[in-house]
C-alpha cells in the first residue's frame, strides 16, 4: 500500500474532491501529503480484528419529533445568501454534461 | 461610574448588580478597547457595535425594572466566527463565505442573547477551524497579546486573544482537537471543552461532527463556569445533544477555589509529558502537580498506552469528516461563486471546482484531499477503519484511567507560543501542538486548560490541562479552580497582569 502520493494521484484526488488545483499547488501538495500520510500510517496494524470501530463518542439514535407545522425560514431568508436567485429559486449552472 | 475591563466577568456581574457600572458603559468600553488595540491584535473579523449597544440598553432597562435574566445579563461577549449569527457576517475565516450573513442564530448564540449578553463581534480563526496558530485565516493572522510577533494558538486564536487583551471579558470558541484549550494555554487564558453533546452544535459550521464542541474562553475558571451554565443543556435541534441534567459548574468552581482537594484522585498521564516537551512548560506543570498534592489530592501516574497514536488517529478521522462536510461549499446556495475562465457555458461541476480552488486556502485543500484519500476505495480499511478502531482503544484507555483517578492531568500544549511563520509550511510540526488535547475529543470527554505560569526560557504562558469522564465537567471546574486559586495567590495577582505587551494598558 502506498504511503506516498504521486503528483498524478493528488490530481486525481483533487478531481474526486471537485477542486481545481494549479500546477504549483500540485507540486507543493504532493510531497506534503506524502509526509503526512507516512506519519499517519503508523496506526496500521495497531488494532487487531477483535477491536470494534468507534465512529462517534456517543451512541447515536434517531431523534424524532411530531410532524407539526412550525415557523421556519422564509424563501427570502433561505435565498438571502445565494450567489444567484430568481422566482424564489436558486439559479444554478447547467448540471448535465455535454454527453447528456 | 466606570467600566474596568480588567475585572473578571464575575466581578463585572457584581458591578452591574451593585449599580457601579451599566451594560452600556461596559459594552462601549469594550468597543473602545477594540478600536484602540485591535489594529495590533487582529482578534476580530466583524464588529457588531450597534446591535451590541442596543442589547446593552435593553439589559440596563431590564435591570432598572428590577429584572435580570441571570448573572451574565449585560456582560458583553465575543463569538468565534464559526458560529452562525443572524444578521452578522459569518465567514469561518474563509474566502468561500466572505460576506455571508446567516438568516439564523446558532443555539449557543440564541442562549447568550437570551442571557442578556451583548455580542461585540466575531473573532478570527483558522479557516474552517483547521489549524493550531490562526495563521490559516484568509483574513490575516491574529497576534498573541503577550508578544505580538507570536501566534495566539489555533484555531480559536481570535477568541483567546480578544479575552487576553481585555477586548472582551468572555468569548465562545469551538474545540475539535484542542482549539479552545491550546489557544487558552498560549495566551494565559482559561479554555473549556465540554463533554461531547453537552453543548448544542446547531448552527456551528461543522468541521468534524463527531469531534466538534462549543465552549467558553475566559480569564478565570469561575467565569468559564458562568458561561458554560448559559450555553449547556439539551437542544432538540441537535441530534447529538445529550438530554441529561447539567452539573452545577459554578458550585464546583467555588468549592475548588477554597483550595481543598482532599480525597480527589489525580492521574498524571505518563504518555503526555517528557521528551520533546519544552522544559519551561514541564517545570510549570510539575509545580502545579505539587500544589495540587499540597491541596490534599492523591496523585498517581497513569498510563494510557494508545495516546501515542491519538495524533495520527485524529489526522485521519478529522480530514475524512471535513472532506465530507465541506462538500456543501459547492457555489450553488450560498457563498462565493467563481466562473471558470475561458468556458462559455460552464457546468455546475466546473463552477464548483473553480470556486473551491479560489475559495479554499492551502490547509483546507490539504485536509480535503487527505480525507478523500482516507475514505477512498482500497484505503478505507487501512486508514479510516483503523482510525475508528484506535478510537475505541483510546476510549478504553480513558475508561481504565478513570477507574484509578477522578481526573487526568497533563500540560495543555507541548510548547509556549511560537513565532508567527515558524511552522506554517510544515503541517506535521503544526499538528504536534494538539498532541495533548486530541485524546479528549476522540473520546468525547471534557477538559479545561488553566494558566500554570510562565516558562523560564521565554517568559510566555503555559497551560495545565484537566480531563474528566464524560458528563463530569464539574470535576474539571473543581480541580481547575483549586489550581488557579493556589497559583494566583503565589503570583500575587492574575497572570495576565504580567503580559509585557499589556503593561500600562497600552495594549
UniProtKB/TrEMBL annotation, chain A:
<dbReference type="GO" id="GO:0006412">
    <property type="term" value="P:translation"/>
</dbReference>
<keyword id="KW-0067">ATP-binding</keyword>
<dbReference type="InterPro" id="IPR003837">
    <property type="entry name" value="GatC"/>
</dbReference>
<comment type="subunit">
    <text>Heterotrimer of A, B and C subunits.</text>
</comment>
<protein>
    <recommendedName>
        <fullName>Aspartyl/glutamyl-tRNA(Asn/Gln) amidotransferase subunit C</fullName>
        <ecNumber>6.3.5.-</ecNumber>
    </recommendedName>
</protein>
<dbReference type="Pfam" id="PF02686">
    <property type="entry name" value="GatC"/>
</dbReference>
<keyword id="KW-0547">Nucleotide-binding</keyword>
<keyword id="KW-0808">Transferase</keyword>
<keyword id="KW-0436">Ligase</keyword>
<dbReference type="GO" id="GO:0050567">
    <property type="term" value="F:glutaminyl-tRNA synthase (glutamine-hydrolyzing) activity"/>
</dbReference>
<dbReference type="InterPro" id="IPR036113">
    <property type="entry name" value="Asp/Glu-ADT_sf_sub_c"/>
</dbReference>
<dbReference type="GO" id="GO:0016740">
    <property type="term" value="F:transferase activity"/>
</dbReference>
<dbReference type="GO" id="GO:0006450">
    <property type="term" value="P:regulation of translational fidelity"/>
</dbReference>
<dbReference type="GO" id="GO:0005524">
    <property type="term" value="F:ATP binding"/>
</dbReference>
<dbReference type="GO" id="GO:0070681">
    <property type="term" value="P:glutaminyl-tRNAGln biosynthesis via transamidation"/>
</dbReference>
<comment type="function">
    <text>Allows the formation of correctly charged Asn-tRNA(Asn) or Gln-tRNA(Gln) through the transamidation of misacylated Asp-tRNA(Asn) or Glu-tRNA(Gln) in organisms which lack either or both of asparaginyl-tRNA or glutaminyl-tRNA synthetases. The reaction takes place in the presence of glutamine and ATP through an activated phospho-Asp-tRNA(Asn) or phospho-Glu-tRNA(Gln).</text>
</comment>
<comment type="similarity">
    <text>Belongs to the GatC family.</text>
</comment>
<keyword id="KW-0648">Protein biosynthesis</keyword>
TrEMBL record, chain B:
<dbReference type="InterPro" id="IPR020556">
    <property type="entry name" value="Amidase_CS"/>
</dbReference>
<dbReference type="GO" id="GO:0050567">
    <property type="term" value="F:glutaminyl-tRNA synthase (glutamine-hydrolyzing) activity"/>
</dbReference>
<comment type="subunit">
    <text>Heterotrimer of A, B and C subunits.</text>
</comment>
<dbReference type="GO" id="GO:0005524">
    <property type="term" value="F:ATP binding"/>
</dbReference>
<comment type="function">
    <text>Allows the formation of correctly charged Gln-tRNA(Gln) through the transamidation of misacylated Glu-tRNA(Gln) in organisms which lack glutaminyl-tRNA synthetase. The reaction takes place in the presence of glutamine and ATP through an activated gamma-phospho-Glu-tRNA(Gln).</text>
</comment>
<keyword id="KW-0547">Nucleotide-binding</keyword>
<comment type="similarity">
    <text>Belongs to the amidase family. GatA subfamily.</text>
</comment>
<feature type="domain" description="Amidase">
    <location>
        <begin position="25"/>
        <end position="476"/>
    </location>
</feature>
<keyword id="KW-0648">Protein biosynthesis</keyword>
<dbReference type="Pfam" id="PF01425">
    <property type="entry name" value="Amidase"/>
</dbReference>
<dbReference type="GO" id="GO:0016740">
    <property type="term" value="F:transferase activity"/>
</dbReference>
<protein>
    <recommendedName>
        <fullName>Glutamyl-tRNA(Gln) amidotransferase subunit A</fullName>
        <ecNumber>6.3.5.7</ecNumber>
    </recommendedName>
</protein>
<dbReference type="InterPro" id="IPR036928">
    <property type="entry name" value="AS_sf"/>
</dbReference>
<dbReference type="InterPro" id="IPR023631">
    <property type="entry name" value="Amidase_dom"/>
</dbReference>
<dbReference type="InterPro" id="IPR000120">
    <property type="entry name" value="Amidase"/>
</dbReference>
<dbReference type="InterPro" id="IPR004412">
    <property type="entry name" value="GatA"/>
</dbReference>
<dbReference type="GO" id="GO:0030956">
    <property type="term" value="C:glutamyl-tRNA(Gln) amidotransferase complex"/>
</dbReference>
<keyword id="KW-0808">Transferase</keyword>
<keyword id="KW-0436">Ligase</keyword>
<feature type="active site" description="Charge relay system">
    <location>
        <position position="80"/>
    </location>
</feature>
<feature type="active site" description="Charge relay system">
    <location>
        <position position="155"/>
    </location>
</feature>
<dbReference type="GO" id="GO:0006412">
    <property type="term" value="P:translation"/>
</dbReference>
